[in-house]
Write a structure and sequence with these properties.
Oligomer: heterotrimer
Shape of chain B: globular
Distance between the termini of chain A: 36 Å
Strand content of chain B: 35-45%
Strand order of the largest sheet of chain B: 2-5-1-6
Strand order of the largest sheet of chain A: 2-5-1-6
Number of helices of chain A: 3
CATH topology of chain B: Alpha-Beta Plaits
CATH superfamily of chain A: Dimeric alpha+beta barrel
Number of helices of chain B: 2
Largest sheet of chain A: 4 strands, antiparallel
Structural class of chain B: alpha+beta
Number of domains of chain B: 1
Order of helices and strands of chain B: EHEEEEHE
CATH superfamily of chain B: Dimeric alpha+beta barrel
Largest interface: A-B, 53 and 54 residues
Distance between the termini of chain B: 27 Å
Strand content of chain A: 25-35%
CATH architecture of chain A: 2-Layer Sandwich
Radius of gyration of chain B: 16 Å
Structural class of chain A: alpha+beta
Chains: A alpha+beta (132), B alpha+beta (115), C mainly alpha (421)
CATH class of chain B: Alpha Beta
Largest sheet of chain B: 4 strands, antiparallel
CATH topology of chain A: Alpha-Beta Plaits
Order of helices and strands of chain A: EHEEEEHEH
CATH class of chain A: Alpha Beta
Shape of chain A: flat
Chain lengths: 132, 115, 421
């Protein structure tokens, strides 16, 4: 089953020291390489910091756009991995090795099973979209 | 430029109908912007791995006890932030409830240095 | 017939844990396993009433349950194969039946209870879910019984159980005994759940009763099963610890009033439990590297071995708490350490440490901190401040029996104070 590992960490304005940066990068590299070797790596992406985020919602039929992430939590979503694991324990083992953020020590990884979209409807759905 | 559209939702429907999403995906594919779209298992199905003093421990549930939780996401390859925001509004329409969509740029990982 | 029912109930208590553990392994589903087991017991009641009780009732139930499970799984498979691509997810998607092995003689099946207990106590489940699932499957307690034990409305607890089972399925929590590095923290979680159940029974946080004996007995039973299934010094120590605490059950409450350790009638202590507990502590300490349960059990052993309060080896106890503090630097352990130091003769030193704990703002709302400080102040003859502390403790406790005890102290100390307090 596919699991998504959401990396939550504290965004800091200070840049990492070269040592910290190296530690975080090599941590990610190790996980990516090993999981790719085992054929279970399905993707990993960093996300641009929340200062660049925009939130969209609908209220009374109108679309409202606001600056910033949807919630001002101390720790923010910094990136994710998607791995194919046999069960939750395997997912946990990999997650424990993923560096959690700016300084590599703080933050946490939330693991969510990915049930996948259900089966795609046949042709008529596409037709319906065109007709609108 | 790729953008991730994070769908945050208060309610977790017992059964999800993805027809509206499939229509949206079909259109995004036709426009050449579609990269991925995934629902996520409800937050009660989550587990969180914490790192403290170099040791990891596992706890149940999502990391944040917010009322709104991540329910799924789209990844789209758009020309601009404005275009991403337009699609975000349409994702909201496909969701059909009181969701919020947070749009974030995906800078990519850049050149990978050799091991 | 009363006979059939009581035998069936006895078999249920003894064997349901082991039977259900195997059924879950075969079907991959807690729900199907429970249903098959319940059906088997229902059949047993009918069959035994009509044809008499079989020579081996446990085997009868096990065989019947397995048969019903296979039938149910086959039905489920046929049903899901007949349906077209599913628009929605269903639980049956997760079933993976071990059909080949299912046709073997059920009596030769391995004991899967260890897998069951590790799965129930998985950290990805919230603690209440862990406790409820453990009591339900391994403990054989009914949902209303568990709800009553934890003072929860039954539908709420039932809902928690449903969610927990769903999570096991959806997140794919594996039905396995963790191996290698994974084992130690997971075993600690299992021990923690058992000890939580015991403590809930031993000194209820809420409500009028201080001790709920059946929960203690259940925890001890689970502790025995754990020791039986897995040789480990900490497992033995946990069982010892529970037995030693439980040995004081009859002396702890008198006429609905709490009796502290130093005031208890030691002739009411359960000697048999103490002997067993002491043996287990000794074995545990010989066995393995020393862990927190061994230290706590050793402390309990020292109390159990003192014929009178005055003979208690407080110096040793203080030393043990110090080691425990190094392993588990919790404010509660620090409080116990401070109290032990005080009792070993250094009253002022103990008091000073408690003051430090409060200053560190770690236990401000914990009534035992104020109660402990009040006790030391009382022994030092500082009645006015003792009274103030007892009053603070009384305001913070949620347990009716603890409250009555504190009120008694307030009356005693108030009397000693005179009208100046």
């Amino acid at each position: 089953m596919r699991y998504m590992m959401l990396i939550y960490s504290r965004e800091t304005p200070d840049p990492l020291t070269p040592e910290q940066d190296h530690q975080v990068r090599s941590g990610h590299r190790a996980v990516m390489q090993e999981t790719a070797q085992r054929g279970i790596f399905l993707g990993a992406e960093p996300l641009a910091p929340t200062s660049t985020a925009t939130t969209v919602r609908v209220q009374d039929g109108r679309t409202l756009v606001s600056d910033g992430p949807f919630a001002e939590t101390k720790e923010q979503l910094a990136g994710y991995y998607i791995l194919e694991c046999a069960n939750l324990d395997e997912a946990i083992e990999w997650a424990a090795r993923i560096p959690t953020g700016c300084k590599g020590q703080e933050g946490c990884i939330e693991i969510r099973p990915m049930p996948g979209l259900t089966k795609r409807p046949a042709g008529p759905a596409d037709q319906a979209a065109v007709n609108h | 430029m790729r953008y991730i559209l994070l769908i945050y939702s208060k309610e977790v429907p017992e059964r999800r109908n993805y027809d509206a999403h499939w229509r949206l995906i079909a259109e995004a594919e036709r426009r050449g912007v579609f990269v991925a779209a995934e629902p996520l298992e409800a937050p009660s199905g989550a587990a969180t791995v914490h790192l403290e003093n170099g040791r990891s421990f596992v706890s149940d549930g999502p990391f944040a006890e917010t009322k709104e939780q991540l329910a799924g996401f789209y990844v789209l390859d758009c020309q601009s932030q404005e275009e991403a925001l337009e699609w975000a509004a349409r994702v909201l329409a496909a969701c059909g409830g009181t969701q919020k969509v947070e749009v974030r740029r995906m800078p990519g990982m850049g050149a990978r240095s050799s091991a | 017939m009363a006979d059939v029912r009581s035998i069936a109930e006895a078999v249920f208590r003894e064997q349901s844990g082991r039977i259900i553990a195997g059924l879950i392994r075969i079907s991959g589903s807690f729900d199907m396993a429970e249903e098959a087991l319940q059906d088997a017991f229902a059949s047993a009641m009918d069959a035994w009433a009509a044809r008499g009780i079989p020579a081996n009732p446990g085997a009868w139930i096990m065989t019947a349950a397995h048969r019903k499970l296979i039938d149910a799984v086959r039905r489920e498979r046929t049903r899901s194969e007949k349906q077209d691509s599913l628009a929605y997810e269903t639980a049956s998607a997760g079933i993976s039946i071990d059909v080949e092995h299912a046709s073997e003689n059920p009596m030769t099946f391995p004991d899967d209870r260890l897998r069951l207990i590790f799965t129930c106590c998985h950290p990805a489940l919230n603690v209440l879910a862990q406790i409820a699932l453990t009591l339900r499957t391994l403990g054989g307690l009914s949902t209303p019984e568990i709800a009553r034990a934890f003072l929860m409305p039954e539908p709420t607890l039932a809902q928690r159980l449903v969610r927990a089972k769903r999570k096991i399925q959806e997140a794919r929590i594996p039905y396995e005994v963790p191996c290698g590095d994974r084992l130690a923290p997971r075993l600690a979680a299992v021990q923690g759940v058992i000890y939580l159940i015991f403590n809930e029974g031993y000194s209820a946080t809420f409500g009028p009763e201080l001790v709920r004996g059946d929960l203690c007995a259940e925890a001890i039973r689970l502790g025995r099963v754990l020791c039986e299934l897995m040789a480990d010094a900490e497992n033995l120590a946990l069982l010892a610890l529970m037995l030693l605490h439980d040995s004081r059950r009859n002396a702890r409450v008198l006429d609905g009033a709490l009796v502290t350790l130093d005031e208890q009638d030691r002739s009411l202590w359960d000697r048999k439990a103490i002997v067993e507990g002491l043996e287990l502590v000794e074995t545990a300490l010989r066995c393995g590297p020393v862990g927190p349960y061994q230290l706590q059990a050793a402390i309990a052993a020292l109390h159990a071995q003192a014929a009178t309060p005055a003979e208690t080896d407080w110096l040793q106890i203080a030393a043990l708490y110090q080691r425990l503090l190094a392993m588990n630097p919790s404010p509660v352990v620090a409080l116990n350490h401070a109290a032990a130091i005080a009792m070993s003769g250094a009253l002022e030193d103990g008091l000073r440490r408690i003051d430090e704990l409060e200053r560190a703002a770690l236990l401000g709302d914990y009534y035992l901190l104020h109660s402990a400080r009040a006790d030391l102040l009382r022994r030092l003859g500082r009645m006015e401040v003792a009274l103030a502390e007892y009053r603070k403790a009384a305001a913070l406790t949620k347990n009716a029996i603890e409250l009555r005890f504190l009120e008694r102290r307030i009356a005693e100390v108030g009397g000693a104070c005179g009208t100046s307090c």
